[in-house]
Amino acid sequence: MFNSTVSKTLKASLLTAVMFGVSATANADNSLITDVANNIEQNISSQMQEMINSAQTELSLSIQSQMSEMMFDMGQERELANKQQIAEKSEQALVTTAITKD
Description:
The protein has 102 residues and is an all-alpha fold. The protein is 91% helix and 0% strand. It has one helix and no strands. The longest helix has 93 residues, at 2-94. The protein is rod-shaped. Residues 1-28 form the signal peptide. Keywords: Signal.
């Protein structure tokens, strides 16, 4: 009977130890998964922030480039219009009278 009680106690202790081991392993696995998920989330977040910053910079540069081109085109158009006005004025100044000889 003593052997039976000791045997049952040992089996219960062994079962308890196994359960604690499984529980500790499960908690460690959950902890590992949580850490990996957190790291992935942080990496994705930082990469998205870098992409947003890069997109903002590219957009700003694109707008600046387009504005520069527009300003250059407007300057050329203004210069051409001034040249045309000067040419028209010089043509008008050349033809002031029409004299014919008989």
